[in-house]
Amino acid sequence: ETSLKVTGIDFLKSQNSQQHHTDGYNIKNLVVRRGQPFQVLVRLNRERRAADKLSLRFGIGENPMKNRGSLLSLKPEREDLDGWKISVVKKDGKEYLLSVTSAPNAPVGKYNVHVKTGSNIYKPENGVIYLLFNPWCEDDVVYMANEAQKKEYVLNDTGYIYVGSAYSIYDRPWNFGQFEEFILDACMYLLDKSKLSLTERRDPASVSRAMSALVNANDDSGVVLGNWSGNYAGGTAPMDWIGSVTILQKYYKTKKPVCFGQCWVFAGVLNTVMRCLGVPSRCVSNFDSAHDTDENLTVDIYLNEKGEKMNISMDSVWNFHVWNDVWMKRTDVPSGFDGWQAIDSTPQEQSQGRFQCGPCSVKAVREGDVYLPYDSKFVYAEVNADRVYWLVKKVNGKDKYFKIATQTQDIGKKISTKAVGQNRREDITREYKYPEGSKEERMSMQRAYSFIRPLRLTPRSGYASSMQTLGGNVQPLALSEPATKTGLHLKITNTEPLHPGNPLEIAITVKVSAPGNWTIDLTGSSQLQYYTGKVQANLGTTKETINLEGPSEMAIPLKIAPDMYMKTLSSVEDEVLILVTAIAEVRETNDKLTQETSMRFQYPPITVEMPETAKLYNDFTCAFIFKNKLNVTLENCKLLVEGLGLFNMTTFDQGDIMPGRIMKSEIICTPTRLGERKIVAKLISNQIKGISTEKGIIIT
């Protein structure tokens, strides 16, 4: 009698991937999520008898072994093994339809599937199954109950990253592209490279921490090399990316870090990786974000006598910083800290010897429980530090430091992410912190301080030896803004649109609310700065002495001619912001106040023209139109466009676009995927880096 042999196996990809929400992945293999049944059809050379042995074997890793738990042998008669289940759905002569359910805590990764009958082993082609986290499974720690949230945080392959400044936030469209070709394989390569144990691969906290380390190139030749120098020769400038797909595909092909990234690039790529692996994930932008290097919850800002910010502090306040939140139950910390966890792949500070950050419970940040793993003190400081201003004056040829103000409510504003199912910004500040000045905020802050134990407040640049001593102990919990005797208040606004090539017209409004006659010395300065707070150029200062009969206010204009800033604007490869700093001092009372505002330049739009709907595999034309409404020629213009499921990333060289000129480019799109697809376009030139737009189309 012939021995029992398998003649074929069908992984029923189309029905399984629809049920597992994995039909988007552009890959030949079967992709399934853990803890949920999938079906496999096994064809035999003859009918199976009671004595015939048959088992489905799932192996993970280089050398799968049963005793290490990396090889599972599932027999239809013995239903349960290590949380995995197998059963016969129906038997039809020589065909067996089997149902397999992996454990809801199974290690994620690539499994080799073989069928063993007696001493015969059948190895199917495309016999590798990809197993992912499952937010649809109640027993998986990444379970997310809300369907619309899963659609956004797991399945949406496009989105926005919010950048700019708290004064002028704008959305940068970003293609996550977690379903595109080679992206899943790139994520599997990262999992292997992470050297996580099988046990760690079960746990999204370990996986997300490892991915936060691997998305930056520091210490493990990971995906993206960070560069904030302003010189991007030999790579792509961080402003020139419009999505993660090109980056991850290039990394997977070369296995070498891709040049270059800044925080939104790291966050965009990490978001792609986490969504691809099945962990709900969102990009989070924090405005006026503190980078507090010594975790004392204060960031020192130094101003010279003209009121200009100096580049001497190790601490910094970034106009914005972008990280990610991932959704999970935390099994490694006390209960009450489930839900969103912050992870950050921008290489800022080392954690346990590597550039990695998180997962840190967002609830722990809000409650001040900064003793919990991982990196909660650092994340807490990013959204809660105080900003301390020091005036640096020359006294007998030596720098002396005078403290002019402490701002307690400035850091961690307008924390933003894309809203679920809508193309708009959602403010999630309340998830990270209680309302400023509330009782809960005070208690949370006292709690955090008890774990951080702030050192006494002194500036800590290399120049601290010539320190002026600043009186006794500083009360850390001054939660309200310093009250002044005159009710002095400063506000900075732009009075005309900030178009490159035009004068920058800014007003500093000085207000006093106390009755009386007041003499106020006002210093105002304007600078160009990177989003990291680093100053690039000084544009001009104004010093005025004004008399105010309180209560009243007065606006002092600050006007900067185009030739003061256009040269710098054209020579940098980053988007720069306009920083305006004001210092006011009331002579009669010695009240001092300082205020700073960062503003972004405003640009003419790109228009996208295409039909509202199109049919699968039917070509249509998409046109991009841009009119240069500025007073300056835009040199070396490049238009970058990408449409996931429509066309690959394409670059058009447009040369120079003179004022008033119109540029038009067209591309033929071939829809290969159904549903809403998005086209993203970005225009970069020597003068301007930040013009981008996106438009959706429904494919039927």
Automatic annotation (TrEMBL):
UniProt superkingdom: Eukaryota
Q: Which residues form a coiled coil?
A: none
Active-site annotation = C263, H321, D344
EC number(s): the record gives 2.3.2.13
Instruction: Supply the SMART domains for this chain.
Output: TGc
Is Metal-binding found in the keyword set?
Answer: yes
Binding note for cofactor: Binds 1 Ca(2+) ion per subunit.
Name what cofactor the protein needs.
Ca(2+)
**The protein's name:** protein-glutamine gamma-glutamyltransferase
Specify the species.
Answer: Pycnonotus jocosus
